[in-house]
Amino acid sequence: MTADMSKLTGAYAVDALGEAERVEFEQHLAVCAECAAEVRELRETVAQLGAANPVNPPDELKSRILTTISRTRQDPPMADPMAPASRQRSDRTTGWPVRIAAAAAAVALVAAGVLGGIAWQTQQQLEQAEQQSDRAAARSAELSAIMLAADTRVVRDSNGRQQGAVLVSEQLGKAAFLGDIAPPGDEHVHQLWLIGPDGAQSAGLLEPEASGGTPRIVELTPQVSQLGVTVEPTGGSPQPTTEPIMLMTLRA
């Protein structure tokens, strides 16, 4: 492996050589196992970086790299037609490090995007876990307050069709729905309703965890007399479209 040719493996791996240099380097590759092995390793690394999920690198890093490239002469000046051949070869040689630097900057930009994406995804996961923990803690505290209220009572489905109950506290003006409902099937959801003289008002969709025993806490206005659960199309409905599978009378 000659000293000059060994410097071109990186540029060749990212297709940064000119046509004449590429042909000359490929002729060298045919007889240099060491350079060929290095090119394969570099291309595998670039391929792995390219296969990663694309994420925009920080604006500061991108700006810094692009500024550096813009200040670097990418190609040697046009050779004087009357200049000796030795000078043309010299100009061509001095262009190699520039192309290698540009190729390295491009690889660094991709790598920065990948590493930045990993950090961003990890931060997102941590934030989501923290938010879920906060919601669970708030829900647990709210449920404890309802359970410990002096006037709390238990109301069950009036027809006993489903396993579930509602804890009602008039003092707090809240109710906690505790359901153990069979899954509604594909393309359907369970929807909870606050029912009063003026009709039914949605209290939200019961996600699988809520249907399986996790409480759904709702605010009770003086007009609410019943809580009902219906099976609705995915996404829910403005008004009930089916008969309630659970109906709990909170107030006479």
TrEMBL record:
Name the principal localization, coarsely classed.
membrane
The Anti-sigma-K factor RskA N-terminal domain covers 8-47
Q: What is this protein called?
A: Regulator of SigK
| Statement: the UniProt record of this protein carries the keyword rRNA-binding | no
PANTHER family the record matches: ANTI-SIGMA-K FACTOR RSKA (PTHR37461:SF1)
**High-level lineage:** Bacteria, Bacillati, Actinomycetota, Actinomycetes, Pseudonocardiales
Q: Which residues form the Anti-sigma K factor RskA C-terminal domain?
A: 101-245
Q: Where in the cell is it found?
A: Cell membrane; Membrane
Organism of this sequence: Tamaricihabitans halophyticus
State which residue ranges cross the membrane: 96-120
Domain of life, per UniProt, equals Bacteria
Q: Which GO terms describe its cellular component?
A: plasma membrane
Task: List the coiled-coil residues.
Answer: 119-146
The biological process GO terms on file are: regulation of translation
Which GO molecular-function terms appear in the entry?
Answer: sigma factor antagonist activity
